[in-house]
């Protein structure tokens, strides 16, 4: 037997017992590996890791926090420029100033600069996670955050907008339709998922929770930089839940979003829903004067990829690309990612980042900043 794990050894593993034996021999963690495929994937990831390849769990966390850093630096530069311009405006010769005031331009410019400076101060950097019901939005968020926080289930559904942001202690704030706010401590005994379930989850998809929202505060480093993530109810099944999402899009600037697709849906991507939804985003953002809303910043995740039979994957991917291409302007191959969230979570719990998740993280790092730059550009105008 070789002194280090080799690819040939992994390829020859043909049953669970051979897999366990190889894992024991090379001290590969076995947790959560319940089938041959999971084991071989774990062995492959271990092989890559031992050769210094593949993403570490720490690097995966850094992806989200680095998004913010880029935004932060640009915001500081721009804020400085605004300060200087405002100071120069205020120092203008009285005669010139009088002339410009008469034209109304100085007053407007000062007011404009002040309002831009105010919006730049905002530490908000939202990433919206949207998509079909049961496509795995909540599961994907748990994966990105590296912990089980949001309830996920096939039978029940997220019924409320869940904003996840940094806080020194783990807690949630639930806002009722009548404005009453309830604080829910999430620390201590019992899992956060259990404590949150009755507030953010509905067992009957017909029930409504109109007008409510929840903010979940978690003490994790990657959110400390101001990035926050919003889990949303599935789109297209229940009109009151659709309304929650559509109202949010109409009332907020959307610079970055991840659209999750249920790849194992019979008939593939539900094109009409997708089209209505994506059109709505573009129109609303135009109406909100988010100029040049950049379609390149959207990320599409073909999730539950493990449930698509291997021999059908190429066809399903091609069909998805065609349908997405018809709904989304200038769609690039690099915006669409195939992922098994459950598979990635299983590997992540054992300290490995699966290949599909690693590719998605690279995509997030590449594409989300395009959207965030729009936020800055808007202030330049
Ligand atoms: N096999 C498989 N199951 C997945 C994957 N991602 C999520 N699931 C399962 O799909 C079901 C739905 O996942 P959720 O995360 O609740 O989906 P959601 O999009 O948040 O659902 P709603 O809130 O109802 O819109 C759960 O049973 C998950 O365990 C995946 O990649 N593979
Ligand atoms: Mg959900």
CATH architecture of the largest domain: 3-Layer(aba) Sandwich
Number of helices: 14
Rg (CA only): 24 Å
N-to-C terminal Cα separation, in Å? 66 Å
Count of structural domains: 3
The pLDDT mean sits at 80
Q: Which structural class best describes the helix and strand composition?
A: alpha/beta
Strand content: 5-15%
Percent range of helical residues? 40-55%
Bound molecules: guanosine-5'-triphosphate, magnesium ion
Can you put this structure into words, describing what you see?
It is globular, with a radius of gyration of 24 Å. The strands form two sheets. A nine-stranded mixed sheet has the order 5-4-7-3-8-1-9-10-11, with helices on both faces. Strands 2-6 form a two-stranded antiparallel ribbon. With 381 residues, the protein is an alpha/beta fold. The chain folds into three domains: 7-50; 67-120, no CATH class; 125-378, P-loop containing nucleotide triphosphate hydrolases (Rossmann fold), CATH 3.40.50. The protein has 14 helices and eleven strands. 51% of the residues lie in helices and 14% in strands. Helix 11 packs parallel to helix 12. The structure holds guanosine-5'-triphosphate and magnesium ion. Guanosine-5'-triphosphate (GTP) is lined by residues 133-139, 152-154, 157-158, 233-234, 303-304, 306-307, 340-342.
């Amino acid at each position: 037997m070789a002194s280090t794990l080799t690819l040939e050894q992994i390829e020859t593993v043909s049953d669970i017992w051979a897999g366990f034996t190889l894992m024991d021999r090379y001290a590969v963690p076995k947790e959560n590996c319940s089938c041959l495929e999971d084991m071989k994937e774990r062995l492959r990831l271990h092989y890559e890791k031992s050769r210094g390849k593949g993403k570490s769990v720490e690097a995966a966390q850094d992806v989200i926090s680095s998004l913010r850093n880029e935004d932060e630096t640009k915001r500081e530069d721009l804020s400085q420029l605004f300060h200087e311009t405002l100071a120069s405006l205020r120092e203008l010769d009285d005669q010139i100033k009088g002339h410009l005031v008469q034209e109304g331009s100085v007053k407007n410019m000062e007011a404009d600069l002040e309002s831009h400076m105010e919006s730049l101060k905002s530490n908000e950097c939202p990433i919206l996670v949207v998509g079909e019901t049961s496509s795995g939005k909540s599961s994907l968020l748990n994966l990105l955050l590296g912990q089980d926080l949001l309830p996920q289930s096939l039978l029940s559904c997220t019924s409320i907008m869940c904003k996840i942001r940094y806080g020194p202690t783990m807690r949630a704030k639930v806002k009722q339709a009548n404005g009453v706010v309830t604080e829910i401590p999430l620390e201590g005994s019992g899992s956060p998922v259990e404590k949150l379930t009755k507030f953010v989850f509905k067992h009957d998809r017909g029930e409504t929770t109109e007008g409510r929202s929840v903010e979940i505060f978690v003490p994790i480093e990657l959110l400390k930089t101001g990035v926050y993530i919003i889990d949303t109810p599935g789109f297209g099944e229940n009109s009151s839940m659709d309304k929650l999402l559509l109202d949010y899009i109409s009332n907020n600037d959307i610079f970055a979003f991840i659209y999750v697709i249920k790849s194992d849906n019979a008939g593939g991507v539900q094109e009409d829903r997708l089209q209505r939804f994506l059109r709505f985003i573009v129109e609303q953002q135009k109406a909100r004067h988010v100029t040049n809303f950049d379609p390149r910043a959207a990320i599409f995740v073909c999730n539950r990829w493990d449930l698509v039979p291997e021999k059908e994957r190429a066809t399903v991917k091609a069909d998805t690309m065609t349908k997405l291409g018809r709904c989304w302007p200038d769609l690039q191959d690099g915006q669409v990612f195939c992922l098994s969230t459950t598979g990635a979570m299983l590997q992540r719990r054992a300290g490995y980042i699966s290949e599909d998740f690693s590719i998605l993280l690279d995509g997030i790092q590449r594409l989300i900043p395009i959207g965030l730059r729009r936020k800055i550009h808007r202030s330049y105008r």
